[in-house]
Design goal:
Blueprint (H helix, E strand, L loop, with lengths): L10 H31 L6 H29 L2 H24 L5 H28 L8 H21 L1
GO biological process, one term: non-motile cilium assembly
Subcellular location: Membrane
Keywords: Membrane, Transmembrane, Transmembrane helix
C-alpha cells in the first residue's frame, strides 16, 4: 500500500451493495406475502396474477446478477463489470417502477417498498458512475527513488510509534 499509488474501491458503494442485498431479500419476502394476500382478497384478471408473481422472481434474479457484477466490478476495479452493473441497475429500476405504479393492484406498502428499492438502485448507479470517473484518471507511477523515500518515511513513522508506546 505504501509503495504504490492506486485508487481503492469505493467503500460507500460496497456498503450500499451489501445493504441492498439484505433489502432485496426483505423486499422479496414481503412482496410474496403481499401477493398471497392480494390473491385471496382481490379479483385478478386471467393470467395477470401469474405474470405479476413471475415478475417478482425475475426482478429478484436480476437483482442478484446486479449485485454480483456490482461487488466484483467495485472490488476488482474493472470498468466492464461496473458498466454491466449500471445496465442491470437500469433494468431493475424499470422493474421497481412496474411494482411501484404499473401492476394490477398497488398497495401502499408496495409503493413504500418499491420506492426504497428504486432509491437504493439509483444511489448505487450514481456511486458506480462516480467510481468509474474516479478510476478513469491516469495514475502516476512511482520511480524507484520515490519508492525508497516512501519506504524510509514509513520506517521512520513506525520507529516513532514504537518509541511513543
Amino acid at each position: 500500500m505504501i509503495l504504490t499509488v492506486s485508487d481503492q474501491s469505493s467503500t460507500a458503494l460496497h456498503i450500499l451493495l451489501h445493504c441492498n442485498i439484505a433489502y432485496s431479500i426483505l423486499w422479496f419476502i414481503l412482496e410474496i406475502l403481499i401477493f398471497i394476500f392480494k390473491f385471496y382478497h382481490l379479483a385478478y384478471a386471467p393470467n395477470a396474477f401469474g405474470v405479476e408473481i413471475s415478475s417478482v422472481f425475475m426482478l429478484l434474479f436480476n437483482e442478484c446478477i446486479r449485485h454480483y457484477f456490482g461487488i466484483k466490478g467495485n472490488l476488482m476495479l474493472q470498468t466492464v463489470l461496473q458498466i454491466i452493473f449500471i445496465i442491470y441497475g437500469i433494468f431493475c429500476a424499470v422493474g421497481f417502477v412496474f411494482f411501484l405504479i404499473l401492476q394490477s393492484y398497488v398497495t401502499r406498502l408496495e409503493v413504500l417498498l418499491s420506492g426504497i428499492g428504486l432509491a437504493l438502485i439509483l444511489i448505487g448507479i450514481i456511486l458506480s458512475i462516480i467510481t468509474l470517473i474516479r478510476d478513469s484518471r491516469p495514475m502516476p507511477v512511482l520511480t524507484r527513488e520515490q519508492k525508497i523515500v516512501r519506504l524510509h518515511q514509513a520506517q521512520k513513522r513506525f520507529q516513532e510509534s514504537i518509541q511513543n508506546e
